[in-house]
Design goal:
five-stranded mixed sheet, Reverse transcriptase domain-containing protein, DNA/RNA_pol_sf, 28 helices, four-stranded antiparallel sheet, coiled coil
Length: 769
């Protein structure tokens, strides 16, 4: 397009339109970091046609934290510790006094180096997170050049404006590249954090609640309080039923071990720098200034553990309502769940306690064997692999299997503190200052609801464990400890993942005794739940029957049957074909691929590959150990997803042969990724790195007399009858795959060496190298 300029004396509105076209053409080169030109007359006329409505303005006070704030804070805190009584923080015996002195010192320092500033924000979208001080300065230069051109209409002013605009767009693009690269680099070892962070950038969630006020927060506060009270009111207590008799714990935990500076540093530096409105000092500043504040924090943590006292300020939580599912109605209060946000230092203290408590529980085998929730070496995949194996084993004997999935209403919120403390003492064996610490942790808790910049008043938290806390999940698992023994009395198989309870049993030709046993077990479960202030939601309890039961058997089932159910994120159908599960994975993966194309221009090849693994490979690999033996057409659909991801990464055409591309990326095809996952489970089971219920499935072959094979780590392969059922079970398929490995690979005992050798072995098989 050619542009002709008139003499300066006659330049009127045509020049404005012409300049606007130039600016828009420049903006079109880099659309994401565009500069909104104010010279467009069309846009000005559009503003005049809009109704004159004033946006909602909220006023808040916040500290401006810059890149140098942590350095100034560390220097000031060190000087305060040397020149004032802050140097004697370690001598203060009471944790509440230590926290009070620490907060007052930090508050005074921040008031001097980063004071609160009044900020008025209108109801508009938030600025892009990659904008920094440099880009803001260049934007100001653009605005200044624009105002100059609007005033004098000179050619030289136009050239200055075009150059300023080009510099701004280049800087924004570089800032966005650097911002996204830092996200990928910092979270490369944590796919879940990487996925959530990038997802929030490329597809930021909009505000669910509109026109929020303090009254909205009070309404949520009232609902959350009344919801728990209503659940407890609906529970029918049976005073004659006593499930927890006097117990003698196998071990006793009386005193916490003192925390060392190295451990405290490792915990703080390893935690996510999340911020809570209750934090006096931003967590990022604490991490960067740890050398200065570390001794004070160490005194605080050890004082709390030794005295069995949790500081009062650590027991107040900010609750933010979170929509349970994206497609739910945000105007219905029951569609929200309360998620607690605790102070950063409170989470550090909980983490230190969790480490010692978890070590005590595992060393003394206290937790339920079939409880997989929030335990090391356990996962949703290990839980489903156990259930899937048991179902296939039963189906291989021509026995249909019924799976019953129980749903508990607000389970985490209705935990009774007195019952939990009793369970910690009688079942776990906590005594002394350790039990006193947990008693202090559970008593006198409070919370307030906060939405955006609005908050409610405080309310006491008389029951429940905080959702979003570190200790909450393990405390709930301890609360549910007796449930496993109740189910075991009826010879039913069960598995638990936090508050998800599933029962399954084979249906014999005469299914009446088994179903009667199931019904009696459910009655005892309901009584136990009521005795422990938990409520079973019958309306959300799901039931599915695998295999082909006869109509007489189905007529005896009193639960509504489903053709498919979602179990821990995996869709199970009656034939265990996983067609619906794979359809969901394919649909979600291609959606994420389209989103990744938005950030592809801003990432290097290495960082883009990490993002692809976080968004695509993690979906393909989730619980893929269950896919062994499914139809080739289903596997091909997953392979198409991986092929599309590889082509996106390598900028290849859809007509390019995919095998060389996968080989160059060193990506195992989907079928071999399934074998890789199963063989990793076998290795971990043989070396004590897997849950016991997985290790119990496998048996090392032990010949009756000394043979060379006795030292080659060979597994026994159970007999199976049907390829559709028995051959797909972990008990049969895993030993076959393991025994097919070279002896040199089976005898490896180091996990990292085995991973490397296994991938090399499968890579050679996949690509015939």
């Amino acid at each position: 397009m050619s542009i002709h300029f008139l003499p300066s004396a006659s330049r009127k509105s045509p020049v404005c339109c012409c300049c606007c076209r130039v600016c828009l053409r420049l903006c079109a080169r880099h659309r994401p970091p565009s500069f909104p030109s104010l010279l467009c007359e069309e846009r000005r006329r559009e503003r005049k046609r809009l109704p004159n409505t004033k946006p909602v303005t909220s006023v808040c006070h916040q500290r401006i934290i810059t890149s140098t704030t942590a350095v100034h804070f560390a220097n000031a805190f060190t000087a305060a510790a040397q020149n004032t009584e802050a140097a004697g923080l370690g001598a203060v015996p009471c944790p509440n006094d230590i926290v009070s002195l620490f907060h007052s010192t930090c508050s005074d320092i921040l008031d001097s180096i980063a004071p609160f500033r009044r900020k008025s924000s209108k109801s508009k979208s938030k600025p892009d997170p990659w904008l920094n001080e440099h880009t803001r300065a260049l934007r100001q230069c653009c605005r200044k050049a624009e105002r100059r051109y609007n005033k004098d209409k000179l050619q030289v002013s136009l050239e200055i404006l075009r150059e300023s605009l080009s510099n701004y767009q280049t800087a924004v693009r570089e800032a966005k590249c650097q911002y996204l690269s830092n996200i990928v680099t910092n979270s490369s070892n944590n796919p879940r954090v990487l996925f959530n962070t990038i997802q929030s950038v490329i597809n930021p969630p909009g505000s669910v609640l509109k026109n929020v006020t303090n009254s909205t927060c009070e309404m949520f506060l009232k609902y959350f309080v009344e919801k728990v009270a209503l659940v407890k009111t609906n529970i029918i207590m049976n005073a004659n039923v006593v499930f927890d008799g006097p117990l003698t714990p196998s071990a006793v935990f009386e005193v916490f071990e003192p925390v060392t500076m190295s451990l405290l540093s490792e915990i703080i530096q390893g935690m996510r720098p999340t911020n809570c409105p209750l934090d006096i000092v931003p967590s990022k500043v604490i991490k960067q200034a740890f050398d200065a504040v570390g001794p004070c924090l160490l005194s605080l943590m050890n004082s709390s553990l030794s005295t069995g006292t949790v500081p009062t300020v650590f027991k107040h939580a900010v609750v933010r309502p979170l929509l349970k599912k994206p497609n739910l109605d945000p105007t219905v209060l029951s569609d929200f769940r309360p998620v607690s946000h605790l102070p950063f230092l409170s989470k550090v203290l909980e983490k230190l306690v969790f480490i010692q408590l978890q070590s005590f529980l595992e060393n003394n085998l206290i937790l339920e064997k079939f409880q997989s929730g929030f335990r090391s070496r356990h996962s949703t995949e290990s839980a489903l692999l156990k259930v899937h194996n048991d179902i296939l084993t039963a189906l291989d004997t021509k026995k249909p299997v019924m799976l019953l999935m129980l749903d508990l209403t607000a389970a985490f919120d209705t935990v009774d503190h007195a019952v939990l403390l009793s369970r910690l003492a009688q079942h776990v064996g906590l005594q002394g200052s350790v039990l006193q610490w947990f008693s202090s942790y559970l008593t006198d808790r409070s919370f307030a609801v906060m939405v955006d910049d609005y908050s409610s008043s405080s309310a006491p938290l008389t029951s429940g464990v905080p959702q979003g806390s570190i200790l909450g999940p393990v405390l709930f698992s301890i609360y549910m400890l007796p449930l496993g023994s109740i189910i075991a009395k009826y010879n039913l198989s069960c598995h638990l993942y936090a508050d998800d309870v599933q029962l399954y049993l084979p249906l014999l030709p005469n299914a009446a005794p088994a179903l009667d046993s199931l019904n009696n077990c459910l009655l005892d479960i309901k009584k136990w739940l009521a005795h422990n202030f938990l409520h079973l939601n019958d309306n959300k309890t799901e039931c599915i029957v695998f295999g082909q039961p006869d109509q007489v058997t189905l007529s005896r089932v009193t639960f509504p049957l489903s053709e498919s159910v979602r179990n821990l994120g995996v869709i199970l159908d009656t034939e265990l074909s996983f067609d619906k599960q794979i359809s969901a994975v394919v649909r979600a993966s291609f959606l994420q691929l389209r989103l990744l194309t938005k950030i592809k221009p801003f990432l290097s090849r290495n960082n883009l590959e990490k993002a692809v693994h976080a968004f695509i490979s993690s979906r393909i690999d989730y619980c893929n150990a269950l896919y062994l033996g499914i139809s080739q057409s289903s596997l091909h659909r997953l392979q198409l997803v991986q092929n599309a991801a590889a082509r996106l990464l390598t900028n290849s055409s859809r007509y390019t042969h995919i095998t060389p591309i996968l080989s160059s990326l060193h990506w195992l095809p989907v079928r071999f990724r399934i074998d890789y996952k199963i063989l990793m489970f076998v290795f971990k089971a043989l070396h004590g790195l897997a849950p016991p219920y997985i290790s119990d499935i496998l048996t090392l072959h032990r010949p009756s007399r000394a043979l060379r094979s006795s030292s080659q780590m060979v597994l026994d392969v159970p007999r199976s009858r049907y390829k559709q059922w028995g051959d797909r079970s972990f008990a049969v398929a895993a030993p076959k795959l393991w025994n097919s490995l070279p002896v040199s690979l089976r005898v490896v005992s180091d996990l990292s060496l085995f991973k490397t050798g296994l991938k090399t072995h499968l890579y050679r098989q996949a690509f015939n190298t």
